[in-house]
Amino acid sequence: MSSTTATSRQLAIDVSFIPGASAEKQHVVLIVDDEPSVLNTLTDALNAAGFQCLTARSASQALITLNNPNYIFDLMISDVLMSGMNGIDLMKHAFKIHPNLPVIFMTASCEIQIAVEAHRAGAADYLIKPFNHKDLINAVSRTITRQAMASAVQTHTNANDWNTAARAFALALDARDKETEGHAERVVAFSVRLGQELGMSGSDLISLELGARLHDIGKIAVPDHVLKKPAPLTDDEWAIMRIHPVKGQEMVRAMKDRLPEAAALIVGQHHEQWNGEGYPLGLKGDQICLGARIFAVVDTFDAITSDRVYRRGRHYQDALEEILKFSGIQFDPAVVDAFAKIEPTDWERLRSQYLVQP
Question: pTM here?
Fold first, then answer.
């Protein structure tokens, strides 16, 4: 999926048909215009480019939509001159709900004062009607990309790089547990690829990357006689080993100024299972964060396809069959479906980049 469509799906939804609570928030573009023909034209063009759209026929409808917690609004495109509240006043109210929402204005008027007022009020871009589809797509892609870059910069709190902190943690674990070497880098790459397939982007994708990198960081708190034991663990030793997700989550949360809460949740939940039979909390279904559900699939994929001291890694098809077998049991079926849609060559390419040389 290209960078311009990473946060979108090809689906148009009118504001009148917004569903109730959903398991995962969807990334959408909100289009506001009092002319149905304009809404239809823009929706068709953006759908064709891979963006999911919501539409509203008035400013008041748009504000209701913006308050819907089931969506993440990547962008609002609004007419300036509408019946009732105009587009510029709508934007000012919208900023009270979503302070960082980028807005593109469109109008049939080419009067310079309207464009100046729009930009002064905080508009990201401005289109003069009639405009062609190429201009529309370019403006939308440019604005969303610019906003994503700005959001990424914001994630580096007080100039502390999350990834640097995560790598420091991961190196500490590698120093104790050589079995993790290479594994962390592979599951990071696998997680990001699967997250992209599921439409994740921006800070969500960064959190997924960090959570995957740090998933086993809690093993630092596991004693060596358990962590490095060459024989099967006893029940008591397994009880000790099973605390590592909780310990890891605590460690990530302790660095709240450097690492996001979403990454901590992935660390704490990466051994939970779709049917509720995982640990440490026995979470079930959508109670498990999406990042942890993604990680569970790629972690199993890496385990099956990687070499071990006692066996050679198995082929992609073997891993796929095993993952499909446990869809709806250990794994989220929607995540499994997304995994299966990715070409095997993609996984092999990623794996080859992170092979640990003997």
Answer: 0.56
